[in-house]
Amino acid sequence: MNRIEQIQQFLKNSPGDPFLLHALALEHIKINDNSAARQIFENLLSERPDYVGSYYHLAGLLVKMGEQEVAVEWYQKGMDIARKAEDQHALRELQSALEELVF
């Protein structure tokens, strides 16, 4: 059983678990299934907008897919969430990635 199948099995017992969904999206990125990864991240953040780490990875994926403008929006959304959560580490990472993209 590969990692994606393992995570999908775990999700049967814990549907909607943000950690598992995030991990599943990352596994899809590893095999270059970017569309599936994007969909998983977008669904995850729709259901759990407070799952701040996924903003960084979704935006990075969008950059990789050539969608810089959309990536900027996701970085900014993630920064807003990180500020509200007072998560300075995530905020710095998102700001750094955004600055690298736009400057």
SSE blueprint:
Layout: H1 3-13, H2 18-30, H3 34-47, H4 53-64, H5 68-85, H6 88-102
What count of structural domains? 1
Poorly predicted ranges (pLDDT <50, ≥5 residues)? none
CATH class placement: Mainly Alpha
Share in helix? over 70%
Name the overall outline: globular
Roughly what fraction of the amino acids lie in strands?
A: under 5%
Which CATH architecture would you pick? Alpha Horseshoe
Give a structural overview.
The protein is an all-alpha fold and 103 residues long. It has a single domain (3-102), classed as Serine Threonine Protein Phosphatase 5, Tetratricopeptide repeat (Alpha Horseshoe). Helix content is 81%, strand content 0%. The chain has 6 helices and no strands. It starts with a helix and ends with a helix. The mean pLDDT is 97.
